[in-house]
Amino acid sequence: MKIISDIRLYKSNVENIDGNSLPSGFDDNASIAVHRVLMKLQENGFSLGNYTHLYLNLTTCAVDGGIKPSKRSVDSYHPWYRYYDVQISEELFEKLGKTQMTSEILDIVKKVLIECFCQTSVDKQLIIDCFEIAVSQGELMTMKFKETRTKNRTALIYLRYGDDLLYHPVLKIYDSNNSLLFESELPETSDLGNLGSIQLSSRKITIKPRTASYYKSLQPITYSY
Q1: How far does CA 142 lie from the centroid of its chain?
Q2: Distance CA 207, CA 186 (A)
Q3: pLDDT at 144
Q4: Is the same domain home to 23 and 58?
Q5: HSE of 134 in the Cβ direction (CA atoms, 13 Å)?
Q6: Distance (Å, rounded) from C-alpha 38 to C-alpha 117?
Q7: For residue range 9-33, what is the model confidence (pLDDT) as tens digits?
Q8: Enclosing H/E stretch for 180
Q9: Nearest Cα residue to 6 out of 61, 63, 65, 46
Q10: What is the rounded distance in angstroms from the CA atom of residue 95 to the CA atom of residue 26?
Q11: Which has fewest Cβ within 10 Å: 50, 59, 92, 105?
């Protein structure tokens, strides 16, 4: 099973089925907090199953049990995402995108994850812990993003996700005794394509961009230490 890649928020006041308009996204600071939760879930290897993107559609339409996978057909060209419909009140729907609803939306996201994607009590506790860390630490929260080890060195890239909607990466290199040898902030970015792979030696580290053609123009980041 693949690790979760994304959680997105949508809204709709028409039934989320084939032939009707797609749910629309909306702006809310809750999206930032949800993304930090996502980062912690990724760090801990959480999986949705055979797809990686969870699209939560907050709707005023009737939903059996309050939360259900949508009846819209899976997009054969984009099979990595699924819509889940969540029934909410007209009052809450009218506030979406107009009033900051961070705590209410986080509660909804947590409920969906626990009710629909928990296999064990361990999964449930992991979700609860990820939400607690993301909310309590906010911009200070870090995620271990990449790690490379040699016989005598370990290189780690940690990410923070700011209220500016940018990732703030930090590189740390440790020796075999776990003593910090080198630390540096990396360029802030909205796209992690420049942090594709790490090549590490006893005196030099190179961080290469992803190999996809979209990132061909990016240059590797190199440090001697």
Answers
A1: 12
A2: 10
A3: 98
A4: yes
A5: 28
A6: 14
A7: 999 999 999 999 999 999 888 999 9
A8: strand 180-185
A9: 46
A10: 11
A11: 50
Task: Quote the pLDDT of residue 69.
Answer: 98
CA distance 43 to 31: 18
| 8 Å CB contact between 75 and 69 | no
Distance, first Cα to last Cα, the chain: 38
pLDDT the model gives residue 19: 97
Specify whether the CB–CB gap between 155 and 172 falls below 8 A. Answer: yes
Kindly state the tokens that stand for 110.
């947590």
Mean pLDDT, rounded, for 78-104: 95
pLDDT at 216 over 90: no
Sheet bearing 6-12, strands edge to edge:
24-25, 6-12, 53-59, 81-87, 67-69
Overall domain count for the chain: 2
Q: What is the DSSP string of 28-96?
A: -THHHHHHHHHHHHHHTT-EEES--EEEEEEESS--TTSEEE-SSPP-TT-TTEEEEEEE--HHHHHHT
Average pLDDT, integer, range 174-193: 96
C-alpha–C-alpha distance, residues 188 and 100, integer Å: 26
Q: Which of 218, 155, 223 is nearest to 191 (CA)?
A: 218
Q: d(Cα 134, Cα 147) in Å, to the nearest integer?
A: 21
Helix-helix angle 102-117:30-43, to 10 degrees: 30
Same domain? For 114 and 205 the reply is: no
Whether residues 12 and 59 fall in one domain: yes
Domain of residue 29, residue span: 2-138
